[in-house]
Amino acid sequence: MSGTATTSLAPARERLTTLVAESVDLRHAADLVEWDERVYMPTGGAPVHGEMSATLRRLAHEKFTSAEVGDALAATEAAIEDDADSDEGRTIAITRREFDKATRVPADFVAEHARVVSAAQHAWGETRAASDFAAFRPHLERIIGLKRQYVTFFPPSEHAYDVLIDDYEPGMKTSQVKAVFDALRGRQVELVRRLAERPQLDDRFLRAPFDEQDLIDFSVDVITAFGFDFSRGRQDKSLHPFCTSFGADDVRITTRFVDAYPLSLLFGTMHETGHALYEQGVSPQYQRTMLEGGASLGIHESQSRLWENIVGRSLPFWEHFFPRLQQRFPSQLRGITLEQFYRAINRVERSLIRVEADEATYNLHVMLRVELEIALIAGELEPADLEEAWNGRMREYLGVTPPNAAKGVLQDIHWSAGLFGYFGTYTLGNVIAAQLARTFRAQHPALDDDLRRGDASSLLAWLRTNLHQHGRKFQPSELVQRITGGGIDPAPYLEYLEEKYLAVYA
Known about the structure:
It is a single chain. With 506 residues, the protein is an all-alpha fold. The protein has two domains: 3-156, no CATH class; 174-504, Neurolysin, domain 3. The chain is 64% helix and 3% strand. It has helices at 3-39, 46-64, 67-79, 87-102, 107-130, 133-151, 161-168, 174-196, 212-226, 264-281, 297-311, 315-328, 330-333, 338-345, 359-378, 386-398, 424-443, 447-452, 457-466, 476-484, 491-504, and strands at residues 233-237, 243-245, 251-255. The chain has a three-stranded mixed beta sheet with strand order 1-3-2, with helices on both faces. The longest helix is centred in the first third of the chain and has 37 residues, at 3-39. The radius of gyration is 23 Å and the shape is globular. The chain starts with a helix and ends with a helix.
């Protein structure tokens, strides 16, 4: 780079870096308010939190979409001569993409959205406890109205839902998500049918009373073995498990305890730890920049599903951890063999609750939600008809009917949080996780031996090198291509499911 170019670039680049860092700080402050709202807020605090969140979201939006940021960004783009694939080149490209999207959305809309979803999440907790969808519906109607309005801020696309998907999975289209679903649906339905014809596995011992704190303590042992760094993270309880990050050095996960299935606490903790390991592994130099965080929600979900299922529900993993679990819970697991336990935690059952669904049926829960979202955004379905439509899809896809709204249309927090376009990333995550696992095993065939020793360090190190450290530097499809040598492909996931579950039910 010439001396003149360097001189002209430096002030603009420094100013852009400062302005972006300040807007990221404000976003993190808003995230922190929302974390507190879902973890520690007293019941009466919802209005105050709603206003705080709205103010912080508006300030962050105004800061990032200011003319000053636009001018500094344009000046930096005009002067930069670095390789487009360099950290700086990618930072500028992603900042431009985010700036162009953000400037289409009025600050007043951002504040109103934050205010509405804050109230909706509080209402969701109350109405879910009461199983009263009618009481929640006005909040959902306001959110859907805002989502339909949000779509109008952007140029017309193939489908209105494309705009919402792009917020979580950059570059992904509705048609591509549907293509993945179409590739999965037939074989997954057939697999579930074949397994249903075989004698069902006994998992009654998993429903016995387990002490909540003992399970939390055991889960801490497990995720510490995974590599979760408690000096840069923490775990708490919430109504719905989640992970949030304020940068790589402050990553927080939550869990919940369910009396009917106590071990869901453990597997939920593994799931959220997958997200957390990703965030803790992002390169420190990306802190307070547009490269901070994960490449997409699909990539993020690949991490949670990999650690929860491909590792956490594998036989080698439990060869190490089952004796320790049995020692901690002797009365519940007395006389239970490792093989019985392994089969029980991989039992396939047409069930009501997505977060407790097995791997074989999980994607059917996701497909149901995505299809309903698409219909809601397109105006083909109204919130007043949502519960009936939900129950109908549950019967069609899974052969079960929710007995109430809490176990049906109100079970997930996502819609109350305004997360439309999010659900499809769970299935993308399953698919990508299987591709990553296959690629890693080809390079490191001793993974099972490592897990039998309780050692997951080789897997984490590989993920840190090939995926985590890059943050948002690469588009999700590009990142998958770089790591696996191919595009997003459902075939490895289907092969993994069929090989595993036909053996479990053999």
